[in-house]
Amino acid sequence: MDTTLLNMDASLNIEEWNGKEQWHPMGHPNDMLQKPPLIIKKGKGVHIEDNHGRKMIDGFAGLWNINCGYNRQEIKDAIINQLDELVYYSTFKGTSHPRSIELAHLLMEMTKPENMKRVMFSSGGSDAMETAMRIARQYWKMEGQKDRYKFISLKQGYHGTHFGAASVNGNTRFRRNYEPLLPGCSHIDAPWTYRNPYTENPEELGKICAELLEREIQFQSPDTVAAFIMEPVLGAGGVIVPPDNFMPLVREVCDKYDVLLIADEVVTGFGRSGSMFGSRAWGVKPDIMTLAKGISSGYIPLGATLCNERIDNVFKANNDSFGAIGHGYTYSGHPVACAAAIAALNIVIKEDLPANARKLGNHLMNRLKPFENTYKTVGDVRGKGLMFAIEFVKDKTSKKPNREIVSKIHKKMIEKGAFVRASGNAIIISPPLIINKKELDSIVDIFETSLIEAEAL
Ligand code: PMP
């Protein structure tokens, strides 16, 4: 065996290797050499550092997941203790292990208001959505309604990359190259106050979009629709915050036609939108909730799909092969991931991170909203808790998207020490939930200076 292969010092060739050898999610392979990514080497608290020693405040919490911040001793200890005790055992029928049992119990306690009764673990958000869609289909088969296999979701919604999740994604960019996707998936307009053909009145819009759901259920024929899927606040689609009445009205429509409601809480779960769960902020109890990202604060990949009593009861009542779950992953409930999650959720609860997100989210809104009037390119500022989007336009009447200024601002912000996400014509700010006011203000200050400079170019 040629052991010289193992003498790798990535620091010598880091940009070149990265550009030539790795395909990055959601990027064009050629871009990686022409527009090389930041290579992040270190993280502590809310700060990250790249391979050139450049320090930045992380205004995007990794990928909406590092809610408890980087390098937390409690989470690292939990991971190391678990590695010492048991690195892996499966949770396939016949075996289990203490950490998955403890985490399942903690999640059931945390979702008592939603009446959740069961959890199935996986390794991320796409896995969790795949699980949710399969459970929904199996539920209806067990109920004797075998034609109920269809899913309805929102345009601009994002639910992941497996064929199931991709089929309910509402963005052509994530669908087009992989079609045909699952049959029976359709989409309705999202309640996007800034961009919709109906009305500028949020309450009216919430009603109209709930009516669109009702009409789509009727069009598909109610006895064929398994579930409606939505993010309580749409994240990757550009932080679209539905009007207050939308999700409660959706619940009513789902109940009217006996359609299951799946809440994709992969981003909104565990405090991001200012409540422990996004659905809770709207006072809605979904039938199924998908969780990932913040569940382990991003330290180890983990996903979870939670089901309420209605679904649990039907599985329990079907004692034959119908009720058996023909689904699951080698890493469903990986002990190290579960240990990390228990430690992370302890921090979320003890430090009341949802309350911090709520409080600082209000502060962020107070600081950013006036930018709509102050700056000619700022079209819309929206957010809830600590998830915000600032949309840039060429002019405020046509609302033509201004992507050019976004890349200029993004670049300038990195130079000045703040990393945020550039997404089309929007800047997204969504920092770790442990952030304090001073740190958050420094992101806003850097954003404002960069915006002024970019507008002057
Ligand atoms: N659902 C939502 C709402 C998401 O934002 C994401 C990822 N950004 C996913 C699902 C998919 O999660 P993952 O990338 O962990 O598979």
TrEMBL record:
Keywords: Aminotransferase, Pyridoxal phosphate, Transferase. One of its GO terms (molecular function) is transaminase activity. Pfam families: Aminotran_3. It comes from the Bacteria. The keyword Transferase applies. Its cofactor is pyridoxal 5'-phosphate. CDD domains: OAT_like. The keyword Transferase applies. NCBIfam families: PRK07481.1. Belongs to the class-III pyridoxal-phosphate-dependent aminotransferase family. This is Aminotransferase class III-fold pyridoxal phosphate-dependent enzyme. It comes from Aquimarina hainanensis.
